Fold Uroporphyrinogen decarboxylase.
Amino acid sequence: MAEHSFPPLKNDLLLRAARGETVERPPIWVMRQAGRYLPEYHEAKAGRDFFECCRSPEIASTLTLQPIERFGGLIDAAIIFSDILVIPQAMGMTVEMVDKKGPHFPDPLQTPQDKQYIELMERHVDVAKELDYVYKAITLTRKKLDGRVPLFGFTGAPWTLLCYMVEGGGTKLFKQVKTWIYKYPEETKALLQKISELCVEYLALQVKAGAQIVQVFDSWAGELSPSSFKKFSQPYLAYIAKHLPLRLKELGLEQVPMVVFPKGAWYALDACADMGYQVIGMDWLHHPAEAVKIIGDRPVVLQGNADPGVLYGSHESITEVVTEMVKGFGWAERKKGWIVNLGHGITPFVNPDDLKFFFQEIHRLTKTD
Ligand SMILES: Cc1c2[nH]c(c1CCC(=O)O)Cc1[nH]c(c(CCC(=O)O)c1C)Cc1[nH]c(c(CCC(=O)O)c1C)Cc1[nH]c(c(C)c1CCC(=O)O)C2
């Protein structure tokens, strides 16, 4: 039984495509579709702190709806306005969002010998209580969406969250996290397992609150070598894919499609297709046609994968990239197996009209009359 009753879904294209069904056109959404490139985002945020916006269901739902309102019938999903770093916060770590710079942990994890690591490993985290504001935002957003499009919930992947927790923010060197995996592999794995269990509960409670599909963002997967990906990312992504359905069943909730986005880990596409996810998000390092071949007849849908940078370019370039994608994913012949997205989140300073043109070109070039 669902926890809430919501208005019926008028556009279920994305959910049908995610289940591998043949569809009339490929569904579209973009990662970070609510965010800094939208003037209305800055207006609604009105100088407030980023995490304060995440914690306010009213503001978070308003921001989530902005791209749906702006782009009307051109896009097929909303994604709840939040951040992957709410999990480290729920675990007791302080995370600030520094304007124009990104996330900052004043007190990142140092070594497994530290009191902080030991306490973190021992602490029971009440995911229901700590992240209650996210569930409230999801429920309110489902109501405000009024069935226009389905709503994504999401989590950071254990590996990517670990990177932030030990690096303390963005990094180019990955010095701390590489020290952890190569010096303290067992303690690293114990922490990754703990994060994975929290991710499962967090996603299950998002579904309970109204999320209709979920995505696991492994934004730093590509920093791992193929063999370290197998040790430090893959087992935990697989754990989530195995245990979320079990937890949903236990809670008496319907199953939802699961998307994994292992950014940069192109070598792992084949392995990811056997991990239990219905959809694999791809960055722009993949040739769609080769990815389709690697998947073969396995029931996996691909999501992606235009270079977000094309949105800084000319309309001719956008048309060219869309044409290549439509051809590469074999849309005209297959009519299934593809959810359109960029290969990573949309970047600041993109003109929203150029994103709109990208959407329109997808519609135009996949139209069947
Ligand atoms: C790595 C990561 C983070 N957060 C997220 C990821 C994974 C996706 C990815 O790889 O891009 C996930 C995320 N963050 C945000 C969303 C909202 C939903 C959506 O996609 O529209 C989602 C899905 C809002 C946000 N998260 C953030 C903003 C910008 C905050 C602001 O300055 O107003 C937004 C709208 C801040 C953030 N949060 C994070 C960083 C590195 C930054 C700074 C860089 C940036 O600004 O893009 C951590």
User: Anything to note?
Assistant: The first helix runs from residue 13 to 18. The beta strands are 78-79, 96-98, 102-104, 151-156, 213-218, 258-262, 279-281, 301-306, 338-342. The chain has a mean pLDDT of 97.
